[in-house]
Structures are given as C-alpha cells and as structure tokens.
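Render Cytochrome P450 in 3D.
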Amino acid sequence: MKVKNYNAWRYKYGYSSFIENGNVDAFAFVDSKHATIQIRDPVIGNDIMVNRSKELTKPVRFYGIIDVYGQNIVSTEGDIWRRHKRAVAPVFGERNNALVHEVTVNLTQKMFESWEMKDKDEFLVNTLDDCENFALSVISAAGFGINLEWDEKGDKANTHHRMTFRESMKKVIQYMPWYYAIPRSVLSLPVPAFSDAKVARDEFGKYLDEMIDQAIDNPGLKASNILQALAQASVLEKESHRLTKPEIKADGFVMILAGHETTANTLTFALALLALHPEIQERLREACMKELDGKMTPEYKDISKLHHSMAVMNETLRLFSQIFSHARETGETSAVVGKYVLPPHSIVEYNITSVHRDPEIWGKDEAEFKPERFFSLTEKMSLSWVPFAEGPRACVGKKFAQIEFVTLLTMISLRCKIRVPEGTSTDDLLSAKGLFTLKPANPVKLLFSRR
C-alpha cells in the first residue's frame, strides 16, 4: 500500500483499512528499517495512553516542525517533558478558565457587531475566516494579554516592530513548514518570501520576549494572561524545575498553535453540521434557553449547565477529530501490548478516526451527526472518545477549548439561525483535508439570520 499523505490517509481510510485487512484490530506498515503498527482496540489504546507512558514513549523526533522557538511541552519526553508539564499544567486552572470565558464573551460580541454592519436580515458569512479570527483573538487576549480589533485593518505595530502582533503570529504559523525544512542560512537569502518568513519569526519572537521579560522583571504584578502566569510561576520554582526564558517562549508559541487552529476548525465544522440539521439546531436553542433560564449570555458559572452545547462539541470532534492518532514507540526491547508483541524501535499508533467511526462501538448510525448520543454513552463509547488524548500526555488546554467553544456556540444559537446557501452540497461543506490538523477543504460559507 502506497500512502502519499499520511494524515489524509488516517482520516479518510483509517477505519476502512482495518476492515480491508480482514476486520482486524491491528495491522502494520513495515519497511526495511522499522514497523508502524496501527491499533483500533480502545482498551489497548487506553492502556497505551494511560498506563504505559514510561515503557512506550512519544516519538518526539516527528514533532520537530513545531520547534520554531525550541523544544516545548509537546515535543519533549522524559525529565525534560515533566519539567514543562510541571510548569504549564497549573497555569490552565480556574482563574484562567474564567479569563477565557470573559474574553470569549467580549469577542463574540465583536463578531456579532461585525455582522450587524451587514445591515441585512440574512447575510452570508465566511465561517472559517470568522472562526479563525475569533480563535486567534481569544488566544491572543487570554494567552498573551493582547486585545485585537475584530478587523485587522485597525492593528498597529509598535514603533520598534516591523509587523503587528497579529500579522507576525499568523505568518509564523503559515511559514512553520519552511522553518523546519529550510536552513536558517537559506532563509537569510535576499528572496522576498524568505525575508517575510524570517521577519515574521524574528518579530513574533521579540513580542514573546518582551512579554516574558515584563512578567519576570515584575514578580509582584498580578498575572493577567497565561504567558505571564507561566513566566512568573516558573521563576518561583527551584532551579532544577525552572523553565528557561527560551523554554517559556517555546511553550508560548505552542499555545497558539494548539489553541487557535484546532478550535477554529471544530467550530466551523460544528456550525456547518447545525446548518445541515435545522432540527438539531432548534433543539440546541431550546435547551440553551432552558439551561440559562432565559439569559442570552452565559456566565462562567453557567458553563457546566450547557450540556447540549458540549454535546455538539463532542459529536463534532468524534466526526472531525483534530488529531489523527496518538503515537508511541518501543525502545531497545520488544513490548507486549494486549495480545500483540511490538518489535524494538517500532511505532504504535492508536488510530483515532477508526475508533471514532467504528459502528460496533457507536452503532450503525455512526456516520450521522447525533449530539444526543453523548447523553447516554456506554462504557465502551466513553473509552473510545479520545480527541484530547488521555493519561499523562492528555491535552492541558482541554478546558480552555471547551469553555471557548461552548460559550460561543451558545451565544450564536440563541441569537441566530443558520442555513445552507442554495446550491451548496453537504460534500462542499464537510469535505476535510488532513494536514497538521483536520481543516475544511473548502471555504465554508453559511447564511445567518437574526432570531
């Protein structure tokens, strides 16, 4: 079997490949150097993630593409990773969760105001563009204390910067594959695109350095964003546990990478699915009105009540998980996982798409969008829903994403109806491409109207 785009294959053919290989729970790609084993058994997958983290380690050599500013919490293992986790995990606590909610409400209002400018009863929204703008603005404000205007035309660069914060942030993400594949000496050549990429990396790095220095130099200053809290908390650690400034900077970049595109993609797919299912959209609105006792804007204390909005998020992530597998590797010796013996130096991947789309777990309607299935999960379903991973390496930003998603979706559902423009097919809206994350393959344009 030849696979040109591995992520695309895992998304499109993850489940069917297990069936085509004889309805097996595991199969392997093997070449002269190593084996890559694909697993779809949720019991084995959970064991790998939760219980075997020391024996089966993360293959961090595959994550060099995200080391734009150095190794970070995602791209490290062992003692180095534990030091990052010790510093980063507490920052995503209750205080910053409340901040995420506050920022999300403010930015949702800005989004509504931009729609009001259309001055029409029904208006077409480029949903992916607006969700990307929204998610980038949330992570900018909650993560870094930078409040962006909704329209980037209002952005201004500081006098000592050659790019605005938003521009440098977006371009660093855009050029990330270049930083990985092209040597710094080559990027320094006088080629316009190379110069743009180099300036973006330098400028965003300067913004991060300035924020980190401000936090460290003012330890008595109450942290007002996640990066400040991380920098201040790290300084208070004893030296052996402390993150260096470059490490804090690297973790700051990964916060953007992990926290903006994944949320934007999930929100876009969710709004498209609701537009395709008006009956589910109406049930969501009625449920939100009941859960909020008629309020139009949820308070932070209300988030735990919004079960239907959370179910929409969960079902969207089941159908469109933003990552494709949870990968681990064996060391110098073989490892026994379930009934399988894994050779030394082999990769084992828990294939998320296959387990999220397995009709033996989710029923014969597994391909359908049914948020209500999350109100009556079986034990096997609960074990099989893993978009944020489980165990020691589970996503530390899970709560951040949930608060952001649920708050925005609830506010939209209470104020707007969404429908599919004439001539737009389901395939047009839900076609996806597997790159670093799972993105809509086409512009997602939906019609919104005020309720």
